[in-house]
């Protein structure tokens, strides 16, 4: 009886030993390292598209050219198409206007090319972005004395875009001129404890977007 119990104990010990060896051979889940994430081609394509969108559009070179007919216009277009930096050429024989598009186009070289190939008289215009509109705003503000007006002028001059400030004590009005948002200017003044204002009127001055050369 005692021998049978001993044999059973030996068998159980052997099973435990076999189980331990099997566990050592089989790798655990924690030991397996996942592969590093890879960048997909879609992500790369999106980055390239965003980079293209951020690029500035090509600047237009506008020329006033002496053209009598469509044949003249075609001759001018042939002289400029394919030239260094030129991407597109549009001609209008009736208006005598030629528009050259190309980010790498040099205006001086384009003019030299046109003069050399066509021999026609022309005037060069460089299209530039329009300057920001200048706003003149009249504010109604309660001012008791010249000291109040001086403090108010000093505060308004600190506002971004303000070019000039004039106060009229008799009418309790302030005339502000500059490139700014009148509504934001009003809010900025009303944030102080000393003054309260509202917009009486505004006037916007537009400027030309072309300069001749």
UniProtKB/TrEMBL annotation:
Region named Disordered: 1-61
Bias (Basic and acidic residues): 1-28, 43-55
Domain HMA: 58-122, 134-207
Keyword Lipoprotein: yes
Keywords: Lipoprotein, Metal-binding, Methylation, Prenylation
Highest taxon of source: Eukaryota
GO MF: metal ion binding
InterPro entries in alphabetical order: HIPP4/7/8/17/18/19 (IPR044577), HMA_dom (IPR006121), HMA_dom_sf (IPR036163)
Keyword Iron attached: no
Pfam family, one: HMA
SUPFAM superfamilies: HMA, heavy metal-associated domain (SSF55008)
Stated family: Belongs to the HIPP family.
Annotated protein name in UniProt: Heavy metal-associated isoprenylated plant protein 3-like
Organism: Cucumis melo var. makuwa
Biological classification of the source: Eukaryota, Viridiplantae, Streptophyta, Embryophyta, Tracheophyta
């Amino acid at each position: 009886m005692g021998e049978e119990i001993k044999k059973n104990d030996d068998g159980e010990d052997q099973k435990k030993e076999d189980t331990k060896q099997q566990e050592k051979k089989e790798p655990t889940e924690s030991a397996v390292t996942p592969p590093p994430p890879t960048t997909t081609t879609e992500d790369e394509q999106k980055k390239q598209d965003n980079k293209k969108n951020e690029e500035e559009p090509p600047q237009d070179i506008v020329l006033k050219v002496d053209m009598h007919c469509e044949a003249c216009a075609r001759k001018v277009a042939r002289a400029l198409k394919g030239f260094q930096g030129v991407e597109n050429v549009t001609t209008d024989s009736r208006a005598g206007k030629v528009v050259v598009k190309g980010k790498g186009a040099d205006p001086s070289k384009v003019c030299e090319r046109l003069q050399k190939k066509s021999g026609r008289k022309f005037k060069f215009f460089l299209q530039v972005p329009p300057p920001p509109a200048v706003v003149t705003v009249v504010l109604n503000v309660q001012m008791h004395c010249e000291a109040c007006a001086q403090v108010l002028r000093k505060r308004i001059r600190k506002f971004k875009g303000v070019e000039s400030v004039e106060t009229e004590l008799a009418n309790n009005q302030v005339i502000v001129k500059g490139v700014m948002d009148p509504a934001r200017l009003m809010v900025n003044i009303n944030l102080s404890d000393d003054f309260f204002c509202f917009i009486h009127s505004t006037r916007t001055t537009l400027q030309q977007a072309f300069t001749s050369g």
